[in-house]
Design brief:
It is found in: Secreted, Extracellular space, Apoplast. The chain is mainly β. Helices cover 8% and strands 37% of the residues. The chain folds into three domains: 122 residues, Immunoglobulin-like; 165 residues, Immunoglobulin-like, CATH 2.60.40; 196 residues, Immunoglobulin-like. Bound molecules: 2-acetamido-2-deoxy-beta-D-glucopyranose (NAG) (12 copies) and copper (II) ion. One 2-acetamido-2-deoxy-beta-D-glucopyranose binds next to loops.
Length: 525
């Protein structure tokens, strides 16, 4: 069986090769810097690892220690964040800027260290840093990307891209394992291969009960491992990523990207077969995929659902507004507000100076406060469609850097409730450091009396990013067994700087469950 990866610009893949512990130290150097590539009739300078797009693949085995020396030769502040199959050897390697570390400055370096326990992209005909800076200036979100890519290639539906189409060459009668990573920044995507059925075997690097489906859907940050059997006639078949657009009122780039599955000895005469794609607004297809798959109870790395809950939280989240305090010709696109976002009516801002985890470690006050509310400050009909137009009076949430403090090893249950203020949307909520069980999901307002009876406590999905149904809710549960400062945020890239985030401060436990001192080379602000 072959393991194949679909990844992105500025991401790299970790492959877990076998389940036999080898205990080796695997060492890599990442030179991060400018790299010029030709796409969509343009030459564009991008920031890449080791001058390659997609980024490098690292092969490790269970029990290995992975050491990555990151050297920042780019003109930007950089941090690296890792999803998936490893436990942190050092909590100081998690990555998010201002949360667990200050950025690696241009010319700087930092070594990330992990113990190994048991990644499509997006393209702009512009410098993505300029795109983000413009979005911050106008307060209205980034311009749409120009293309989506598969392993860095836009594919033949775009101009100048006929020979920039990803091709997967296969032999008839084999089984292939595909690891599909949604590395797009702002859109969820459906994925299909014409005339082939997927058998999903893992999501977010946790095993699932094998699940047969024609269509896969992934939010940014999520991964799916799926098998395909090449049992079709000798031909070429399109693989297609098409956006899942949970709220048509929110504009996105509606383009698709295509690659090819090419059978050995396929006749080149006939054109490749296209799959029948779902509509980009097909929430029922997306929801079926997101909610119907179960975890592989009692399989490798299975963790049973903790039955006793120590902390119950109910967290509303969604889009809001902030006052425009800037002046200048481009400030807030000429409007007197800018877009914002919040969780429980607190719009998260990253601190300046000391990172939050260093403040926690050194017991420095003034960087964050411990009063993130466990419940919304006021109760309203969260998903009332009328809030999309008349919700502006409750759309302004204060800017703050608030955390929820958790006792070591406490079990936490969080109801994640989307709000309809300005726009309902499916937001992928990512929790750093912990996998969680997804106990239930639904549309409308969560109602404990009715919805608790739907909890799957036997074989729920284990994930690190849950795409909460548009105008709906999801209930997650996890055990806070890793001391440190852990960000929770929407994985739609634009929503994080708007404030759709909070953090958990997990207190130290008994030895050895104590946050170790920061490494000597931890970047300083
Ligand atoms: C890298 O690219 C950026 C953006 O295009 C440019 O400003 C910078 O001068 C380049 N740096 C080097 C070392 O080439
Ligand atoms: C990681 O592995 C090293 C070497 O085996 C060991 O010393 C260390 O305790 C491990 N750390 C964790 C968090 O498992
Ligand atoms: C950023 O905004 C400036 C001024 O409005 C514009 O000239 C430039 O093309 C924009 N850049 C991008 C990448 O959108
Ligand atoms: C791709 O096509 C362009 C013209 O469209 C050509 O200049 C270029 O050499 C081709 N590249 C490869 C690798 O075939
Ligand atoms: C693909 O599937 C369609 C519909 O089932 C079928 O008509 C077509 O012949 C298949 N194409 C190939 C090349 O197998
Ligand atoms: C091809 O394999 C799939 C499983 O991946 C199976 O569902 C399907 O029936 C097989 N089709 C043929 C023609 O053997
Ligand atoms: C889109 O906007 C229209 C008009 O404001 C509204 O009626 C509709 O409910 C919105 N759709 C969604 C999915 O929010
Ligand atoms: C598709 O991409 C092209 C650029 O390649 C762009 O002009 C067009 O607006 C995009 N279409 C949509 C629906 O976003
Ligand atoms: C492809 O064709 C060659 C020559 O006819 C043959 O030897 C080979 O077995 C074929 N491969 C497959 C996968 O059908
Ligand atoms: C998955 O869908 C099937 C068919 O609709 C249903 O019987 C089953 O209960 C669902 N399973 C879960 C875990 O939602
Ligand atoms: C902008 O001004 C408003 C009202 O004066 C104030 O409440 C808010 O905190 C300011 N926002 C920022 C980001 O400074
Ligand atoms: C890089 O980070 C440092 C320290 O946080 C900050 O002072 C500086 O403004 C940042 N530079 C850029 C280009 O963001
Ligand atoms: Cu979001």
């Amino acid at each position: 069986m072959k393991l194949l990866l679909f990844t992105l610009p500025f991401a790299f893949a970790l492959l877990l090769a076998s389940s036999f512990a080898s205990g080796a130290v695997v060492e890599h150097t990442f030179n991060i810097g400018n790299f010029t590539v030709s796409r969509l009739c343009n030459n564009q300078v991008i920031t890449a690892v080791n001058g390659s797009l997609p980024g490098p693949t690292i092969n490790v085995e269970e029990g290995d220690t992975l050491v990555v020396h990151a050297i920042n030769n780019s003109p930007y502040n950089i941090t690296l964040h890792w999803h998936g199959i490893f436990q942190l050897l050092s909590a100081w390697a998690d990555g998010p800027e201002s949360v667990t570390q200050c950025p690696i400055r241009p010319g700087g370096r930092y070594t990330y260290r992990f113990n190994i326990t048991g990644q499509e992209g997006e393209w702009w005909n512009a410098n993505v840093v300029d795109v983000e800076n413009n979005a911050t200036e106008t307060g209205l979100g980034p311009v749409d990307s120009d293309a989506y890519t598969i392993n860095g290639l836009p594919g033949d539906s775009y101009s100048c891209s006929q020979n920039q189409t990803y091709k997967l060459k296969v032999k008839q009668g084999k089984t292939y394992l595909l690891r599909i990573i949604n590395a797009a920044l702002n859109e969820q995507h459906f994925f299909m291969i014409a005339n082939h059925t997927f058998t999903v075997v893992a999501m977010d690097a946790s095993y699932t009960e094998p699940y047969n489906t024609q269509v896969i859907v992934l939010a940014p940050g999520q991964t799916v491992d799926a098998l395909i059997t090449t049992n079709q006639t000798l031909a070429s078949y399109y693989m297609v990523f098409t956006p899942y657009h949970s709220n048509p009122n929110v504009t996105i780039n509606g383009n698709i990207t295509r690659g090819l599955v090419v059978y050995d000895n396929a006749t080149t005469a006939s054109s490749p077969v296209m799959p029948n794609l779902p509509a980009q607004t097909d929430t029922s297809t997306a929801h079926k995929f997101y909610s119907n798959i179960t975890g592989l109870a009692h399989g490798p790395h299975w963790v049973p659902v903790p039955r006793h809950v120590d902390e119950h939280m109910f967290v509303t989240f969604g889009i809001g507004l902030d006052h425009c305090n800037e002046t200048g010709p481009n400030a807030c696109g000429g409007l007197n507000f800018r877009l914002s976002a919040n969780m429980n009516n607190e719009s998260f801002v990253l601190p300046k100076g000391l990172s939050m985890m260093e403040a926690f470690y050194r017991n420095v006050s003034g960087v964050y406060t411990r009063d993130f509310p466990s419940n919304p400050p006021f109760v309203f009909n969260y998903t009332d469609p009328a809030l999309e137009t008349n919700g502006t009076d409750i759309a302004f949430a204060p800017k703050s850097t608030k955390v929820k403090s958790l006792k070591f090893n406490s079990t936490v249950q969080v109801v994640l409730q989307n709000t309809a203020i300005l726009a309902v949307e499916n937001h992928p909520i990512h929790l750093h450091s912990f996998n969680f069980h997804v106990l239930a999901q639904g549309f409308g307002n969560y109602d404990a009396k009715v919805d608790e009876s739907k909890f799957n406590l036997d074989n729920p999905q284990i994930r690190n990013t849950v795409a909460v149904p548009v105008g709906g809710w999801a209930v997650i549960r996890f055990q806070a067994n890793n001391p440190g400062m852990w960000l929770v945020h929407c994985h739609l890239e634009t929503h994080l700087p708007w404030g759709l985030a909070m953090a958990f401060e997990v207190e130290n436990g008994p030895q050895p469950w104590v946050l170790p001192p920061p490494p000597a080379d931890l970047p300083q602000c």
